[in-house]
Design a protein that fits this description.
By secondary structure, the protein is of the alpha/beta class. It has helices spanning 3-17, 21-37, 42-49, 53-65, 132-147, 184-192, 201-212, 272-275, 277-289, 296-299, 309-317, 321-345, 361-374, 377-380, 394-407; strands at 40-41, 69-74, 84-88, 94-100, 105-110, 121-123, 155-162, 166-167, 172-173, 196-200, 221-226, 230-236, 239-240, 349-353, 384-387. It has 3 domains: 3-88, Winged helix-like DNA-binding domain superfamily/Winged helix DNA-binding domain (Arc Repressor Mutant, subunit A, Orthogonal Bundle); 94-206 and 395-407, 2-Layer Sandwich (Nucleotidyltransferase, domain 5), CATH 3.30.420; 216-389, Nucleotidyltransferase, domain 5 (2-Layer Sandwich). Helix content is 42%, strand content 17%. The strands form 4 sheets. The chain has a 5-stranded mixed sheet, sandwiched between helices.
Length: 423
Amino acid sequence: MHLSKLFETQGESSLKKNGSTRKLVLKKQIFSILYLEEQKTIADLCGPVAVSIPTMTRIMHELMDEGWVIELGAGESRGGRRPVFYGLNPSVRYILGIEMTKRYTRINVFDLQNRPLGDTLQIDIELNKAPDTFEILKGEIDKFIVKYDLDKNRILGAGVCIPGLINKKSNINYSYPNLGNKPLDVIFSELLDIPAYVEHDTKTMALGESWFGLARNKSNVLCLNVGSGIGLGMIMNGELYQGFSGFSGEFGHIQIDSDGELCDCGKIGCLETVASGSAIVAKAKSKIGAGKNSIIKKLVNDDIEKINLPVIIKAAHQGDQYAIELIEESGGYLAWGMAILIHLLNPELIIIGGDMAGAGNLLSDPVKQKLNKYTINRIRQDTTIYISELKEHAGLLGTIPVVMTNLLSNEPNINNHNNPVQI
């Protein structure tokens, strides 16, 4: 639902009869300012929307009566009456966040101050088993909504991040044909019975970092999503870069070994086959199963099939030499690919996120060391490398801007797949 339409359903239908659509636009502008910039006085709001103080006062009173805006208290006097600050009522509407990966899905609901309502729900369902995935997902979301006593009509929209090759023109996911041939936003809107906005998982992570993480107030940032696969989200000149069709960022599928392993994409020797979490886990299972000495085996009670990336990272933090070597090796391969990105794009910041971010400096140190070998120093010194502070939470947090940038845009995006998400 477009934001102006939402205000219309909150008592504005009579305005159209009077031709006062301008008020709908003003309410949307006020909502946008208060959401993005938080508390403001009436005088603060008058300039950006170009209305008088009496007009703004009347509109603010209407928004308060409708429950959108609340009074936050008075500020310090500057020689006259103390100014009153206003802000959005954080519980007037909510945002549903859904982060889908190959092996699990995370769900939470956020208020208009971007705060989660409770603990994030993680469901161990596999994306490639749709349509069962959809049935399970809808059931779990319905239970989540009931748990927190939410009125579904108060959810502004669902932000969904999903892996795979997503064509932003058609909004169809080509990596998971079992999802069907409808646009993804249509699929999820029909499934959830609320407006849904879908974005690629790594691009969503980049939005999360840009709004809430280390990329905030940065203009040229690369966000590496290193987990079961390897993706790249790019903030270029302050905007999320999509590419011509939306396929940008398939960093994990550059070839690194022409005689290497077969990748899930069908090509040989992709970066994912040697540096991703899946590659590390596969190697650990093979080597430990063949007798390699490591506390990883103890952590899984000798059940090799239970080895996963969190277990390997845990072992590394406990000083296990083999686990550290696995992460260092991955960091070396990542640095090889990152060197290409640095030489081509000259970013101010590269953030390493995803599940591998849990390795911390055990990953970033070998990356930085190898970058000194692979890059021209004068170019390299302009780029800072950080492990994400949001870590595995960046993707789910990124669903908030996926929804809000669509709602705050000038035109509805649910049927307009050519409209890129703006920062």
